[in-house]
Amino acid sequence: MKSLPVNLKFCIEGEEEIGSPHLPEFLSENKEKLACDVVVISDSDMWDRGVPAITYSLRGLCALEVSF
Asked: DSSP string of the chain?
């Protein structure tokens, strides 16, 4: 059995539908164990195979006002 040349960590969070009330505390308490270089969020759309996409606003709120 070969090993992968990367260190994979999975965080499967099951409280998304109720606002993830325990996620911030969990992340804070386990930040050393969860330390990584890249985060992949898999609950977003895949528009087409081979087409890159930027997904935003998955957690919390973000507002922007543009004035000309």
From this structure: -PPPSS---------GGGT-TTHHHHHHHTTTTT--S-----SS---STT-------SSS--------
